[in-house]
Amino acid sequence: MAASAKTLSLEKPNPPAEDWKIVLPRRGKQKGQFRKTIESELQKPGQSWSPIDDQSDPESESKLMQKMLSYVQKLESSQFYQAFIDQIQSHEMSDHLHRVSGSEEKLQMVIYGIGSIESYEPPRLQLSLAILMKRKFTWIGEVQVFDPVLSLTESKVLSALGCSVLSFNEQGQRQALKPTLFFMPHCEAGLFDNLLQANWEVNMLNQIVLFGNSFEAYEQFLSVCKDPIREERQRHIMAIRSFTKEFAINATSDDYFRAFHSSSWHFFSHQSR
Questions:
Q1: Domain boundaries of the chain, sorted by first residue
Q2: Do residues 140 and 107 touch, judged by C-beta distance below 8 A?
Q3: 60-268: what fold?
Q4: Hey, which of 48, 67, 188, 213 has its CA 20 to 30 A from 235?
Q5: For bias kind Basic residues, which ranges apply (predicted)?
Q6: Using one digit for the tens of pLDDT, what is the confidence trace for 113-157?
Q7: What global pTM score does this model have?
């Protein structure tokens, strides 16, 4: 099938059927102030990273740890969390998880853009959800975390909670060379697009489970608010939509709406839609 300006083409050569090819939409000409070319090549990931502050004290670490444990406990006893777990264990979603994991026993979890767990409630709830998933499911392996805003105190608490804090800013460009769960609630669209672009091959897309902002919501927004620059920056998100199976989560509870609204699970496959 030929690519158009708005659709993703999927070419299926001779068997095996899994050997599908993704073709990006062609860039259209833009008028006026939008006649700019945005480089399609990935920017090189940043340099090695360490917290800006180089001091932490046991009292601050203890207070933050107690706060995090309190949030984990609160979330675990909530109806929101039970519904979240029930969705993961549903027959349809379990099938998608098994397809991604293949013969691997575990999926590594990579958490991008968690924000400051010391300063804000939504990041604390989001991290609590990731921690509870790790405790609940034996198929979740190592948990790695990165956000450039993390303080030294936050980094130490994350380590104490069983997470590895990355020392390099990947800018969302981790390649899924093995089955990987990317946990990215409320990250910027550009980070999702970076992730897709870095994995723009079928064998890698097939190994991704993505929890983050709803791609369907991005598509709906762009269909109403035409913005050529925004469309260009989200073109991988738009191009993959036809091959995305999305499971929206229910985040209507007042306690958890800010942390999880418009969040979905995403799986990528030529059989998705």
A1: 60-268
A2: yes
A3: Rossmann fold (3.40.50)
A4: 48
A5: 25-34
A6: 999 999 999 999 999 999 999 999 999 999 999 999 999 999 999
A7: 0.84
